[in-house]
Specification:
The structure holds two protein chains of two kinds. By secondary structure, chain A is mainly α. Chain A has one domain. In chain A, helix 12 packs across helix 13. By secondary structure, chain B is an alpha/beta fold. Chain B has two domains: 219 residues, Rossmann fold (3-Layer(aba) Sandwich), CATH 3.40.50.300; 87 residues, Alpha-Beta Plaits. Chain B is 33% helix and 25% strand. In chain B, the strands form three sheets. Chain B has a six-stranded mixed β-sheet, with helices on both faces. A four-stranded antiparallel β-sheet of chain B has the order 2-1-4-5, with helices on one face. Chain B is elongated, with a radius of gyration of 26 Å. About 5% of the residues of chain B have low confidence. The chains are: A mainly alpha, B alpha/beta. At the A-B interface, helix 1, helix 5 and helix 6 of A face helix 2, helix 3 and helix 4 of B.
């Protein structure tokens, strides 16, 4: 049809059933991020530790003399995931700060929620974007390291002896991604400025660690590690990977704190993500 | 014309913002076609639309859209409804095609279909040449058009347009109103236009719901609300010198001149004569009177009285009531 003849026509095609619109939001979010060169650069940088670890695993399996120095143990995988925390932080800030804040700035929430999707779907879609990228720099390379270990040794001995590693890498990555994603989303829903959200998030992370540092100096004890978000994550990670705990705080307490943070974030999101902002 | 059954109905709907009532026990129906939702700012128009979309939960009452209960089938309703919000709204970082296509996907269209329809509706609303520009660089008028495009991309049965001509220049405004008319008349899409601009409603709609202070002031077909045409007349007359004694004879009746007369014909006596004949006369701000002729009578009655009183009719034409009259009457303004 010539362009000048194109007008409004009725649509007679298929429509998808409600319930899967979160995937549309997630796909669009991922596409938007991959269209940014700076983000691709950040993503590539975040994979550098993976290549270093891959070389370590290669050397430990192919050079017996070096095996004692660069021995691969379950702690290797936990250490790798902890090392990725810095990249988790940067990606959370880069991707997450504007996820809801930008929509609020552009009044996009009323557009979203006037479509056949629920608030939960909207939030889940946004969460999926950030969680997806965080898993891409934690769980995915972590599992790939495990596969590389099997491929380089050519046997399943290490894997069989450490069967818990597969679920441990998966579980810890998911807990890490879920905690940081939900916290960032909640903060993002509080403001229309992504910069302000980024500063707020950094403050939450670093302030909690600073408060823990002060309390530890005062009490001379690591029992108060539960006030620090990174310390709680480390503590839960140690429990999942079955390595010695780093702090005296019981790991169930740390897990409860993380669960509380996720719950609090959900409450904030429930109150802030609305099609109509009512000021009374 | 689109369906004639009510597309929207409200029964005793009350919407509260804290202790402030936005809608007070509202009951009304919106028939198919183009319906205007008219009222001053703060009358509750936007609150009503947002309630019908399920974005605001009313504290009392029942609402139905396209035969579906808003309380239980909000998602099904939103799949069949388009909404053009009043305020500037877009998805950040997208060009027009991506934005409209994305909205289509959110409404349930497959990706390829959504993209195709995005191009079509962008041409339809007049943004064809600018469809690859980032929406954030658009002018106010273009943003109005893109909001209409995103509301139409999934081919809704009903479109809510909240102040569609906000911030548009005269040419753009006319084009937007033509689009709204075309949607309702040629494309069989039911349209509810919320506006405080009476000419916009009068041009695009055949039915109106007038709101004031959270309540329905009046509702019905615009033609019916205006009342029967041809029975109200604008009148200007002159009492000639021969008929009276005043040296200033000739000033208009509406100016309130009374003229002494041989028999004595005066302004007041002429009005009294018309009132006795059952005609209602009202002065207006302009230089004319409004005369209501009841029953089957018409201009002939006025001429007859004027002839009997030897008064010259200088101007007589049927008065066409405007929607402004309807609105003013409904909200109790003079």
């Amino acid at each position: 049809m010539p362009i000048h003849d194109q007008g409004y026509r009725h649509y007679g095609g298929q429509r998808s059933a409600p319930g899967r619109r979160w995937a549309v939001i997630a796909r669009a979010g991922v596409r938007t991020m991959f269209s940014k060169r700076a983000f691709i650069g950040l993503l590539l940088l975040s994979w550098l530790p993976f290549f270093v670890r891959a070389v370590q695993i290669y050397i430990s399996t192919s050079v017996p003399q070096a095996a004692a120095l660069v021995q691969v143990t379950p702690a290797t995988f936990k250490d790798f995931l902890e090392q990725q925390s810095i990249w988790v932080f940067f990606i959370t800030v880069y991707v997450g700060a504007g996820l809801i804040a930008n929509d609020r700035r552009a009044n996009a929430l009323q557009i979203y929620l006037s479509k056949p999707l629920t608030r939960v779907e909207y939030m889940f879609g946004k969460l999926a974007i950030l969680m997806g990228f965080l898993l891409l720099v934690t769980g995915v390379p972590g599992l790939m390291l495990l596969v590389l270990q099997i491929l380089f040794t050519g046997e399943l001995t290490f894997f069989r002896e450490n069967l818990h590693l597969l679920p441990a890498i998966t579980l810890f990555s998911v807990i890490q991604a879920l905690t940081f994603s939900s916290t960032m989303l909640a903060l993002s829903s509080l403001s229309k400025s992504s910069r302000y959200v980024a500063i707020l998030y950094a403050a939450v992370i670093f302030m909690s660690q600073a408060i823990y540092g002060v309390l530890r100096q005062v009490t001379g004890d690591t029992n108060v590690a539960w006030v620090s978000l990174p310390a709680n994550m480390t503590q839960v990670g140690s429990a999942i990977f079955r390595v010695p705990l780093q702090y005296k705080t019981p790991w169930p307490v740390s897990l409860t704190v993380l669960a509380g943070l996720i719950l609090a974030s959900a409450v904030v999101l429930e109150r802030r993500v609305r099609g109509v902002e009512i000021v009374t | 014309m689109p369906e004639l059954d009510p597309v929207v109905s409200l029964e005793n709907v009350t919407v509260m913002y804290g202790s402030q009532a936005a809608l007070r026990d509202v009951s009304t129906v919106f028939p198919g076609g183009a319906v205007g939702l008219l009222g001053p700012n703060g009358a509750g128009k936007s609150s009503m639309i947002k309630s019908l979309l399920g974005l605001i939960v009313p504290s009392r009452g029942r609402m139905r859209v396209l035969g579906l209960d808003v309380a239980h089938a909000a998602l099904q309703i939103r799949a069949r409804v388009g909404y053009m919000p009043e305020t500037d709204s877009h998805i950040p970082g997208m060009n027009a095609v991506s934005f409209v296509s994305y909205c289509g996907e959110l409404a349930g269209l497959p990706r390829v279909d959504a993209l195709q329809r995005a191009h079509e509706v962008l041409f339809y609303v007049g943004l064809g040449e600018a469809r690859y520009r980032n929406v954030e660089t658009y002018s106010s008028g273009m943003k109005q058009r893109i909001k209409l495009a995103q509301a139409l991309v999934h081919d809704p049965d009903l479109v809510f347009l909240d102040e569609p001509t906000n911030g548009m220049d005269p040419k753009g405004r006319d084009e937007m109103l033509d689009l709204v008319r075309d949607l309702a008349l040629a494309k069989n899409v039911n349209v509810i236009v919320s506006s405080h601009l009476l000419p916009d409603i009068e041009y695009t709609c055949n039915h109106v719901v007038v709101m004031d202070k959270g309540q329905i002031a009046t509702a019905g077909p615009i033609a019916g609300l205006k009342g029967p045409q041809g029975r109200v007349f604008e009148l200007r007359f002159k009492i000639p010198a021969a008929a009276g004694m005043s040296p200033i004879a000739g000033m208009s009746a509406a100016a309130g001149t009374s003229v002494g007369a041989r028999t004595p014909v005066t302004f007041d006596s002429f009005l009294e004569r018309m009132r006795l004949a059952g005609l209602e006369c009202h002065a207006t701000e302009d230089d004319v009177m409004r005369v209501f002729v009841p029953g089957e009578g018409g201009a002939r009655d006025i001429f007859a009285i004027a002839a009997a009183e030897r008064v010259q009719i200088r101007h007589l034409r049927p008065s066409v009531p405007t929607l402004e009259d309807v609105f003013a009457r409904a909200v109790g303004e003079d």
